[in-house]
Amino acid sequence: MIIDLHRHLWSIFERYAAVREIAARGGVAGVHRHAEAPVQDVGARAGEIRAEMEKAGVDRSCLLLGDYGLRLGEGDRSIEEENRLATDLAREDPEHFIAFFGIDPRRPGAVDLFRDALDAGARGLKLHPCSGFSPADPVCHPLYALAGERGVPVAVHTGPMAAPLISTYASPLHLDEPAADFPDTNFVILHAGQRAWFPLALDMARWKPNLYLELSLWQSLLIEDEGRFVSHLAEIKNGIGLGRVVFGSDCPGVSAVMPLHTWVETFRDLPEIAGRHGVEITTDEVEQMLGGTAATLMGLS
């Protein structure tokens, strides 16, 4: 089974014009693809995702939602409504979709909303600290406790983001205290810290067995320097083992950089690709990264 642990119904560039414009000025690849925000028709977008999944051979896609409202202003829909789109879609089509609940923990009633989402079938929590909070802030603790109690992972964005979002709290370092204080809760370090903080993310995971690495946004590194991409995988293998890596795409925001099917093919071909650089990656390790570990984290059969 192939599970994309990190994708969205709509990218942040599609949801927020301000971020789209600033990221384009900063040279972020692929932003031009989102020159205008699309009509956010759930049925139409779900159909597009299914077609993309079928072409790539992806079995399940986890729908993650970044809550940027307290930083960027509320969107056309409330955060409750946006989350309900994902949980409803996952309930209607569980063969393709899994819902994660996304919330800014500073919102009133965040814990109750998360509990309601879990009761509705959500299988994880998504936090986006670039909205202006630290994942180590005590306001997050009740969410972590509930995630551990219900046996679902907490996926947290790491790495820099375009203004007006802020990167201060997006260092993996802010997950050190939560991982220590909530050892029964599993945390997924989305983007594995990106280039800025990858060594830190890996070193922390060496000491905290409930930290996992997710590799979306590494598509550009693969394109630029295949050898460096493989060397980072070798570092992970030697440090914590590739069984603590989960596959994610971050589509559709990164689709213009590398389409989903190419990213999946890269993972399937890792034994050959890595071998060109003197690194051994087995087919069993590939299967774990592509879906086995994610299935375990979410309690899927």
TrEMBL record:
<dbReference type="InterPro" id="IPR006680">
    <property type="entry name" value="Amidohydro-rel"/>
</dbReference>
<feature type="domain" description="Amidohydrolase-related">
    <location>
        <begin position="3"/>
        <end position="299"/>
    </location>
</feature>
<protein>
    <submittedName>
        <fullName>Amidohydrolase family protein</fullName>
    </submittedName>
</protein>
<dbReference type="InterPro" id="IPR032466">
    <property type="entry name" value="Metal_Hydrolase"/>
</dbReference>
<keyword id="KW-0456">Lyase</keyword>
<dbReference type="Pfam" id="PF04909">
    <property type="entry name" value="Amidohydro_2"/>
</dbReference>
<dbReference type="InterPro" id="IPR032465">
    <property type="entry name" value="ACMSD"/>
</dbReference>
